[in-house]
Amino acid sequence: MHTLTGLLNQKLMIYPCAGKYHFRLDYSGRNSLAIRFSIRLNTVTISLGNLFVIASPELLSLILERILRRICRLEADLGLNKRMTELIGLEFPETGRTKPTRTVEHYTPAGRYFDLKEIFERLNLDWFRGSLSCPTLGWSKYVSRRRLGFYDQQRNLMVISRIFDQKNVPPQVVEFIVFHEMLHIVFPSEKGRSRRIVHSREFRRAERSHPFYDFAETWLQKNLHRI
Ligand SMILES: [Zn+2]
Questions:
Q1: Domain ranges in the chain with CATH number 3.30.2010.10
Q2: Between β-strands 43-49 and 22-28, what pairing exists: parallel, antiparallel or unpaired?
């Protein structure tokens, strides 16, 4: 969210006509690439689908700029719109509106301090008898505290927030986060009575069986806002 707010402030300098509004920004929706904004009195609410959490700052800037141009009632900038669609296609190849012409290539498992692939394979052997095939795996493109990691079944994509690729993050925490996402492969979300159950009882039980469970949870509670 810091990034989004920061990008918005930069853009507001170019579009002072939108400066009279208060802005509210949020991510919402599951696996969504929706881009919505509404104006009520002097408040503009911008709501982006939660997949944009991992979008590049360039793409987020273009989205914000497009919205600001509309708020200021400026003519659509066709070059800008084209570049935005292009980037959505590149960064979200299978969910974007453009044809999925490329594989997910932006994610690399080897970080500065932790190699996710190595962690995945080790956990796979220790906990799943090597039965899981490794999805497209990598560090998020930019730092997110809101979303520590996710596994997207449709894209067979596992992404861990880059915030954890740091020297002062204990390896047990990274391992536990990867383990959590691996459980999403083993226990896919189920349809409940009124909403989808993402973390079923079996999921939670398996998660608690990991020896780093308590350590990781406690560490995250204490340190997540500091790293
Ligand atoms: Zn989860």
A1: 116-223
A2: parallel
CA atoms within 13 A of residue 143's CA, in its CB half-sphere: 11
Distance 44 CA to ligand 1 centre (A): 31
Query: 100 CA to middle of ligand 1, Å?
Result: 26
pTM of this prediction? 0.56
CB atoms within 10 A of CB 184: 18
What's the topology of domain 116-223? Zincin-like (3.30.2010)
- The CATH number of 2-91 is 3.30.2010
Interval between CA 145 and ligand 1 midpoint (Å) = 14
Condensed to tens digits (0 to 9), the pLDDT of residues 66-124 reads 999 988 888 888 899 889 988 988 888 766 444 444 444 578 999 999 999 999 999 99
Ligand 1 centre from 106 Cα, in Å? 22
